[in-house]
């Protein structure tokens, strides 16, 4: 089934598909926070998978969280620019500034993540629980800075 996009519809093809889901599932496309949540879940899967592999190989939890978060950043840009904030991606030089802003918010989230994971694991918290706490805090901080800054 080919979906046509009108000139007014700024959604990506994936956004249109999600918007056409039945009933409550279509709500995932209605609000940017729900689209951002979906993007974050996919990105988090990449993040946590790499984190767990590195921790299993006795890599420092702080560095493991940095590597996992970095992998998630790349995945998140691809999803955010086409699905979460459709029609908000800039062109030309403005696109480069937007990417720099996105990377800046990623560095903010990375700093939050590494700090919380390192601090909590030093206090004896299991690395996975420390990572969970870091994910919760960084999710909201980064979402708000991207929504009202990068993709305004």
UniProtKB/TrEMBL annotation:
Pfam families to which the protein is assigned, alphabetical:
GtrA_DPMS_TM (PF04138)
Cell compartment(s), UniProt: Membrane
Q: Does the keyword Secreted apply?
A: no
Task: Return the InterPro entries for the record.
Answer: GtrA_DPMS_TM (IPR007267)
- Membrane topology, from the record: Multi-pass membrane protein
Keyword tags: Membrane, Transmembrane, Transmembrane helix
Query: Can you say what this protein is called?
Result: GtrA family protein
């Amino acid at each position: 089934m080919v979906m046509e996009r009108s000139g007014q519809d700024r959604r990506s093809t994936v956004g249109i598909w999600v918007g056409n889901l039945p009933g409550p599932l279509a709500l995932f496309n209605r609000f940017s926070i729900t689209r951002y949540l979906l993007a974050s879940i996919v990105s988090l899967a990449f993040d946590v998978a790499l984190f767990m592999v590195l921790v299993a190989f006795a890599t420092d939890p702080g560095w493991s969280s940095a590597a996992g978060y970095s992998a998630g950043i790349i995945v998140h840009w691809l999803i955010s620019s086409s699905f979460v904030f459709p029609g908000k991606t800039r062109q030309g030089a403005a696109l480069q500034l937007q990417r720099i802003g996105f990377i800046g918010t990623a560095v903010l989230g990375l700093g939050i993540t590494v700090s919380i994971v390192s601090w909590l694991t030093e206090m004896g918290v299991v690395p996975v629980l420390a990572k969970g706490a870091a994910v919760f805090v960084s999710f909201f901080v980064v979402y708000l800075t991207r929504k009202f800054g990068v993709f305004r």
